[in-house]
Design brief:
Strand content: 5-15%
CATH superfamily of the largest domain: Nitrogenase molybdenum iron protein domain
Number of helices: 9
Shape: globular
CATH topology of the largest domain: Rossmann fold
Radius of gyration: 19 Å
Strand order of the largest sheet: 4-7-6-8-9
CATH class of the largest domain: Alpha Beta
């Protein structure tokens, strides 16, 4: 996800571990990057086993004077969707807040609102902000060959790690990060608080617009290329049916494709969704098999170069998601 961050008035410097175009699931952390992490003041990671490489990082940082933020500790985790579709009635939504009254004690963030797979670290000694593009060097790691990712959920655990696609979760995560920044840089408490409140307001409006935008949809089942939208589905009463598991590069068996083709026809589903950063082959295969139209639904694990150049961010891409879902589910 992108950052909603205003660092020029603070002493924090943002550095991202890997290129926006990479998913944390396929990232391998270079040894030289591990050495750089020891100079961080704040280290933020998604958690819920999103980052298969996180244990070595936490072992490295455990005795250091670094504030570590596990974003997944801010929210109620959902069980991993095995791909066969789970119904999420709105009455079951976690936190009972329906996205409106957000208990302040439960919210967490800086001024970001980013996909917390970015594993940010912040050095607070230089008093200026670095453009994200300056930090893509060769820390970006090495993407695994797609052939290495055929196992549906490979090393992931029982919980869905895509916590940030729910705007209410994003508020909670954001406040947690804000508190970490304040703890490390109390002199600029007011800046972090202001940034958080601005972003929180945007997220609350986004939640309201999701609810209004999906209120009259005729179809509540969505087929997605991999299981990345469980929290979004849970929040807004949708049912996610995934072709593969957590990994964006897992490839389904012929039997699974046949099963989903049958589901699409029986349930009158006309669309399949895939993400910008995922391998489109899975969606294209099922689209051809079941005569579905493929549409992009952004799970915002990162941004493409085109999205960065266009000034896209978490909020703008989530509004595009509303439009895409309306198009597919109103018919």
């Amino acid at each position: 996800m992108t950052l909603q961050v205003k660092l020029e008035e603070t002493e924090l410097i943002f550095k991202q571990l890997f290129l926006q175009e990479l998913s944390p699931i396929v990232f391998e952390i270079p040894t030289r990057t591990l050495a750089h992490l020891e100079a961080a003041d704040v280290f933020i990671y998604n958690g819920a086993e999103m980052e298969p490489w996180i244990d070595q990082v936490l072992e490295l940082l455990k005795d250091k004077d670094i504030i570590i933020v596990n974003a997944s500790e801010s929210v109620e985790l959902l069980a991993f969707n095995d791909g066969h579709g789970h119904s999420h009635d709105e009455d079951d939504h976690h936190d009972d807040d329906h996205g409106h009254s957000h208990d302040e004690d439960e919210h967490h963030d800086d001024d970001h609102g980013h996909s917390h797979d970015e594993d940010d670290h912040h050095d607070g000694d230089h008093g200026h902000s670095h453009d994200e593009d300056d930090h893509h060097d060769d820390d970006h790691g090495h993407s695994h060959d797609e052939d290495d990712h055929h196992d549906d959920d490979h090393d992931h655990g029982e919980y869905d790690p895509h916590i940030w696609v729910d705007p209410i979760n994003a508020i909670k995560i954001s406040e947690q990060i804000k508190l970490a920044f304040v703890a490390r840089d109390p002199e600029h408490h007011a800046v972090y608080e202001e940034n958080f409140e601005v972003f929180k307001t945007q997220l609350e409006k986004l939640d309201e617009d999701f609810r209004a935008g999906l209120q009259d949809i005729k179809q509540r089942k969505i087929i997605v290329s991999h299981s990345a939208f469980g929290y979004l589905a849970h929040r807004y009463g949708l049912e996610e049916i995934s072709v593969s598991g957590i990994s964006p590069h897992a490839e389904p068996s012929p039997g699974r494709l046949a099963e989903l083709t049958k589901v699409a026809r029986e349930e009158n589903i006309n669309y399949i969704f895939f993400e910008e950063l995922a391998n489109p082959r899975t969606a294209e295969t099922l689209a051809n098999e079941a005569n579905l139209e493929a549409l992009i639904l952004n799970n915002i694990e990162g941004l493409t170069e085109a999205q960065l150049n266009a000034g896209e961010d978490f909020i703008s891409l989530m509004y595009k998601n509303i439009e895409t879902l309306q198009r597919a589910l109103m018919e």
